[in-house]
Amino acid sequence: MAARPNVIFIIADDHRYNAFGVAGDRAVQTPVLDALAGSGTMMAATHIIGGVDGAVCVPCRACVNTGTHIFQATESQKIGDHARTNVIRQGAATMPSWFRAHGYNTHAIGKWHNDLASFSAGFCSGDALFFGGMSDHRQVPVFDYNADGLYPPEARRLEMKFSTDLFTDSAIDFIELYDSEAPFFLYLAYTSPHDPRTAPEPYASMYDPESLQLPPSYMEEHPFDNGELDIRDEKLAAYPRKQGEVRQHIADYYAMISHMDDHIGKVLQTLTASGKEDNTLIVYTSDHGLAVGQHALFGKQNMYDHSIRVPCLIKGPGVPAQQRIEANVYQFDIFPTLCDLSGIEVPANIEGRSMKALLQGETDKGRNTVYSLYKDIQRMVKDDRYKMIRYRRSADTGQGSDYVQLFDLANDPWELNNLASNPRYRPQMDMLEQELAAWMKRVRDPYAELFV
């Protein structure tokens, strides 16, 4: 029996699903991610499930690491309960802890945005550990790994190396120095391309804002109150959104992505030089997407595809090359998929489903429909063609609108033409309404009654 494969799990922060070349954006330069997709499989319709926290990265990271939806992943799903909405549920098997229990040396680098107890249970070692949400990329507060799980404020140090360089160098050191016979699980979590988008040269000057085309979904103002127009992310640009300012944000976003792409390439080159590439599974994904000017939004606190879809590239033993799969899947399906590909059992009672069969060319009709949520104000249901988003005014904040959108994604991939009031699409609306209601009931969504 062949040795179990190593795993390198790379997760970015704010990388939209189509913001790299092979995914469809020909303006941004991402030769490394494009090559990774070419030598493996791209799951082109990978979705986050969302959560009840404005910092969407917190619930998304909990979900990807537990392989399940947010109502199973964390201790609390109460809006504003920040002390517990980031805490992974006690007793839940996390991806690093599960691989550790099955003989893997688990090593963490970069961002961990959940609780320290789940981190310590998951990792045997680590370097350049960032336990916050965001920071200046040139002043990154990090910790050295502590086997006792103690990370007091006085142990934190400020790294002046750019975050992407810092985490990349740590990953290179780990791969070069690794000499154990046991397989490794490397968790490499970048904070790029999250703002402040201040890529170093020559990347900062790589994109001329005036030469960039605005996306078809560019708008000066969002057409209605979605309940989260005043959050920090939406204050990164002035209202109404001006074309020049949006182009500059896109240029800076692309610069961060290209810089990160280059550094991921250095990690993969080190893996090749180590002789371990052929027996290593590599995953690239992001915690969530980002609007960056689409629909007049800049953040991720919405249900449009630019925010709820993420990259998902998988390469390694058992994964076909040059394959693009369009089936709707969840980001939390990655955990059971890696288990399946590594030859270890999948944890019981999780929502995620292995994508191994899809990777090997089989179809799965049960995957047609996916769902996503945000706080008590937005719910989404989507099948292989139509997508419905329901909005509600928050009883707590008074923000939001009682509104519904329906998009025919086959003919309107930029989500511009709302068909909800068109009687011709009443059958689609009814079907999606029923599916959304049934899903909210099944997962015990505490805010379900607001959307019925």
Automatic annotation (TrEMBL):
Record's keyword terms, sorted: Calcium, Hydrolase, Metal-binding, Signal
Cofactor: Ca(2+)
A Pfam short name: Sulfatase
Domain Sulfatase N-terminal, first and last residues per copy: 5-344
SUPFAM superfamilies: Alkaline phosphatase-like (SSF53649)
Family matches, as InterPro entries: Alkaline_phosphatase_core_sf, Sulfatase, Sulfatase_CS, Sulfatase_N
PROSITE patterns named in the record: SULFATASE_2
Record-stated family: Belongs to the sulfatase family.
The protein's name in its UniProt record: Sulfatase-like hydrolase/transferase
Species annotation: Paenibacillus mendelii
Classification of source organism: Bacteria, Bacillati, Bacillota, Bacilli, Bacillales
